[in-house]
TrEMBL record:
Organism: Pedobacter alluvionis
Membrane topology: Single-pass membrane protein
InterPro entries assigned: Preprotein_translocase_YajC (IPR003849)
Keyword Transmembrane: yes
NCBIfam families the record matches: yajC
Subcellular location field: Cell membrane
Gene symbol of the encoding locus: yajC
Name used for this protein in its record: Sec translocon accessory complex subunit YajC
Length: 107
């Protein structure tokens, strides 16, 4: 009995396990990693296309207009002329383009 358990534990190389690990890695890549890379690339493109005067929404939900820009930050003018400096990574949406595109007609 003990020798049977030891022989089963030693088992050896099973190519089906390698194929399963490879399939899991592919699924993980296509459903987790690839979409995140695409999202990061699109966000970087959005940030690079912003210019002074564009309306934006930050990740904190603050709506404003870009008053000034430098390498890493935006100076955003909000309601009442108040200006707040934000890091470029804090921008989540270009409201200028979002409001310019017409909504799809409802059926």
């Amino acid at each position: 009995m003990t020798s049977t358990v030891i022989l089963q534990a030693a088992g050896g190389f099973d190519p089906r396990q390698l194929i399963m690990f490879g399939a899991i890695a592919l699924v993980f890549y296509f459903f987790m990693i690839r979409p995140q890379l695409k999202k990061a690339k699109d966000h970087k493109k959005l940030i690079s296309e912003l210019k002074k005067g564009d309306k934006i929404v930050t990740t904190a939900g603050i709506h404003g207009r870009i008053a000034d820009m430098n390498d890493t930050t935006f100076l955003i003018e909000v309601e009442g002329g108040v200006k707040i400096r934000f890091d470029k990574s804090a921008v989540s949406l270009d409201a200028t383009k979002a409001t310019a595109t017409p909504a799809a007609p409802k059926a």
